[in-house]
Amino acid sequence: QIQRALRSLSIPLERLHIMKGHMMQDMCKGLSRQTHAQAKVRMLPTYICSTPNGTEKGNFLVVELCQSQVRTLLVTLDGDGNMSPHMVYKIFDLPEGITQGSGEALFDFIAQCVSQFLAETIHSDPSKSEERLPLGFVFPFTCRQTQLDKAELLSWSKGFNCNDVVGKDVVQLLQSAINKQELCHVDVVALLNDTVGTMMTCSTEGRACEVAMVADKGSNCCFMAEAYLVETTEETSGRMCVNTEWGCFGDDGTLNDIVTPYDECVDVESSNPGEKRFEKMVGTLYLGEIVRHALIALAAEKAIFTGTSVAVLKEKGVFTIQHIMEIINNEEGTSDVKRILEALGLEASERDCGRVQQICRAVVGRAATLHATGLAAILSYMCQTRDMETLMVNVGMEGELYKGYPRFEEILLSVSRLLSPECMATLLPSRDGSGRGAAMVTAVALRLAAQRREVNEVLAPLRLSRADLEKVQALMREEMERGLGKETNATASVRMLPTYVSHTPDGTERGDFLALDLGGTNFRVLVVRVSEDGINMASEIYVIPVAIMQGTGEALFDHIIDCIIDFQTKQNLVTHTLPLGFTFSFPCQQMGLDKALLLTWTKGFSASGCVGQDVVQLLRDAAQRKQHAGMQVIALVNDTVGTMMSCGYDDPKCEIGLIVGTGTNACYMEEMKNVGTVEGDQGRMCINMEWGAFGDNGCLDHLFTHFDKVVDESTINPGKQRFEKLISGMYLGEIVRQILVVMTQKQLLFQGKITPKLQTRNIFQTKFLSTIELSNGLALRQIRAILNELEIDASFEDSVLLREVCQTVSLRAAQLCAAGLAAVVEKMRENRGLDQLSVTVGVDGTLYKLHPCFSDNLQKTLKDLAPNCNVSFLLSEDGSGKGAALVAAVASRAADAME
Ligand code: ADP
Ligand code: MG
């Protein structure tokens, strides 16, 4: 019988694995917005989002409500790593009956304790009386917390039952009671329970502690969870300490196959049958009861205490945790066991003593094993949600089971290691209880609040209000009008260049076309076949040697013709004369669809004899020189126009082209009657806005921040392309880097350490913004990887702040782009006299395509700024190849129609 009893109290490893799985499921359930109300493991948010970093400084008051005492504590931190905080404390006994009386009396008593404590300590140190004194309140009951200093009591426990407190904000109750004591300089800043206090206590002395376990009368655990997983709060960045409240684990039956008949008896006799099933197997309040019921059962089976009366075991609570500890901690002989049992009134034989000892060890050992299983669930959960292969973590420990049972630590470590081999926990004993932790929470809260104010100050100029954006929209509109006007064009910062493209595709275009793409990352020659079945393309990339880029114009265009001949030969297209569209991504003054004067070379080109010349003619001349008759240049196009045309083939409503890549630019279909720079009033023409230069006349100066000015000054064209420099891929990374430098100087980041790499221009690439903003808790590792490349050693909080900086910069870019577009679509709507305009924007550019939030932010802002326009976005595929061919196709179609 005794063996059977012992077996029922020992849980096989595979069963523990299953239980760990259940615990993890329940944790997820407790965190999920949909299921948390039904969850047994409550997973309560604590609004504690950071652990101490050692820079905390000042005086902090703590008041802790305990089982039968109120403890007050004054902690002085020197900002020296919290190595040796100075602490003064005083303990007050709770008056008889107060735990069952009125809530007001309880809180008045607590406030009196604070008042008396301060009177005594301030007496010895008058300097502390003037300053404001932040207070942390340790309140070890289940609360629904909605802020660090706002917590509604859900239910009393541990024998407390005061009136008029459940459902109320206990922080408010304490603050009012304190105000009544005329301690107006004391601010209740934080509320926390003892588990969280333990975690924070153990976080001192330079070690981060992200888990705490209290194995005491009850049992509980807390840990730092990824904030975005805590769906019951609005907080989404960083981490937040979650109070698991795991005592109710198993209340839905998940523990049924491991509970013993002894556990059932304990539960039935308790004041809350069916509830807190896990706690009733592991809490020291219950372990004595489990042993008592096991002994009763064994005595009934005549396996123990044969021939003596066991009537004394009938009495609830006779067997306490202290008895158990004494019994099991007695390794030598059984004489002490005999003495303890005799004191209880039990006649025990030598054999009885041995068996009682075995039962006690089994019950306490099981409690430790179950704690280990819960811990393993938490560790694995943390490891998984942080996307780590292995997790090393410190676990703060407190409670009489942990302190009184020497094997607890060993069992906790070995069992959790078996269940979560990927995790490595180090146990840290809590030295000063939860009080010191409460001081740390309070100190951290104040540090974070101060830091937040400074961060906001740095980022404020980059955050645009709706009014700012409306102003940008209005200014863009003004500049557009100026650019279109014959007289005003010369002074407009937005050039509004005519493109002589007057139709978008209608899908009836047919034929084979050649296209050239010069001025992007690669020089390409393409053949584009437009048929009923859609568009087919083949292309080849050709190299333009630097000697040719920077040689004579003749050599450059000869080379281009050579490439075309090579391509047509390879594609078996030599016998045809194909119409050709030329994407030429350099600024041109266009005089006709096939006539465009080069205004200036950019991007490393400097071929002589080209500026001021008609680029199409230069290409035709070269063809003549090479006697190549296989092509006929029909059109020269800008890449925005190509983008609009290529999307226009799939969507006839596409009448806007947008590029957000290395640079930014847009084009759209304008009414000819509005285009003052071109003769004629009929129909429409696509206008290449060249909006990157918006603001070059100073009209956006009010928006430029210190960071933008520094970035602008370091470019090859200071003062030029000002709008582009707020938006496009070439600059966003550098803006972020400038902010990081300033924040580091202000000690807000990277512990104030600026590495030489961080000071290197353009080292922070725009694609980093995409990676960083994409990462939720899961991919913070990738942020670390990026920072490691910059030789920066970043804390978790640094990563979170870095992400905020990136978000701020990319959001502003998207919003400005939207303000520009809003001006465009609103103008189109007015042009056409419509209440509502439906239009599609064809978009190209890697920043738009790959950044995780840019397009969403752009579209959301546009909807807001231009509510009467229904704007869709279509991604362009190879706009510069396909688009140029389509311009040629549309032109030939129009020419055919004329004939
Ligand atoms: P271009 O504008 O020269 O035709 P792209 O459209 O490919 O070329 O844009 C290149 C720009 O996109 C680069 O300047 C770079 O800053 C940016 N970029 C590259 N990768 C990413 C990314 N993953 N996320 C955001 N921006 C990126
Ligand atoms: Mg491009």
UniProtKB/TrEMBL annotation:
Protein keywords: ATP-binding, Glycolysis, Kinase, Nucleotide-binding, Transferase
Keyword Ligase: no
Domain Hexokinase C-terminal per the UniProt entry, residue ranges: 211-444, 655-890
Domain Hexokinase N-terminal: 2-203, 455-649
UniProt cross-references to PANTHER family, sorted A to Z: HEXOKINASE (PTHR19443), HEXOKINASE-3 (PTHR19443:SF1)
UniProt function note: Catalyzes the phosphorylation of various hexoses to hexose 6-phosphate.
Name of this chain's protein: hexokinase
Organism encoding this protein: Brachypodius melanocephalos
